[in-house]
Amino acid sequence: PWGPHTRHRPVAKKGAIRATMEVQYRAAAAEGMQTIIIRGGDFIAPEEPGSFLNMIVLKGLAKGRIEVLAGMEVTRAWAYLPDMTRAAVALAEKRESLPAFTDMPFAGFTLTMGGLKAKLEALLDQPLKVRRFPWWAMTLAAPFWELARELREMRYLYDLPHELDPAPLAALLPDFRMTSLDTVLREHIERLTPHEASQGTSMVTQTGRWSLAASSTAAKGSDGAGHNTPAPVTFRSAEGRT
User: Fold this and answer.
1) pLDDT per residue over 71-105, tens digit each?
2) Residues 35, 174, 168: CA angle, nearest 5 degrees
3) CB neighbour burial string for 2-23, b if at least 16 within 10 angstroms, e if fewer
């Protein structure tokens, strides 16, 4: 599993940008800026029609099919955003006991497309057809469409089996419990009507990193009325670990 000590070897433009950013975060931590990076897989957000799962994988669910970008048995990491947010808050609340730089994998769900299909079929009580994502179309569109180029750069995340190490988060937050996969998928099934499935003009596709950066002074600051103010928070999606 990928964890805090996994070496950065970016193979895409965005991965190189994120790796450079994390070097800067480490340098800032050495100067007193506390940084917590929460690293998750593809974002799952049932209410967001532009999320990758809704926009591509489940867009044909109402018609009895799913669309897949890789082999049915390739494991991938997925991060349910409400759970990832709860983890971010819990880590922020423990920041005074954390080192200046914390790299925290958020394991989320480790799923294959075959496993996802089986789960959906059980919840729907019906078989589903499988359609392959047209990578050839992305190749044709790449010279003219930036998103197509970036999807092709990140194809390795669909071909390379991977998962994120759950042990570091479990050690820091032993009482943290994730929402069950069945509950998350039921949310998608309830929301994904044919109308909703056709909406959305942007896509969250990359293995995600959320970084929470807080200066030690801001973490202990005051709003002028005697109340403690929270640390500033920045959420970033990114990829670049192989």
Assistant:
1) 899 999 999 999 999 999 999 999 999 999 999 99
2) 45
3) bbeebeeebebebbeebeebbe
0.70 exceeded by pTM: yes
Q: How far apart are CA 39 and CA 15, in angstroms?
A: 13
| DSSP string of the chain, one letter each residue | -B-TTPPB---SHHHHHHHHHHHHHHHHHHTTEEEEEEE-SEEE-TT-TTBHIIIIITTTGGGTEEEESS-TT--EEEEEHHHHHHHHHHHHHTGGGS-SEEEEE---EEE-HHHHHHHHHHHHTS--EEEE--HHHHHHHTTT-HHHHHHHHTTHHHHS---B--HHHHHH-TT--PPPHHHHHHHHHHH--HHHHT--S--B-SPPEEEEEEEHHHHT-B-SSS-B-PPP--------B-
Question: Whose CA is closest to 103, among 205, 179, 31, 19?
Answer: 19
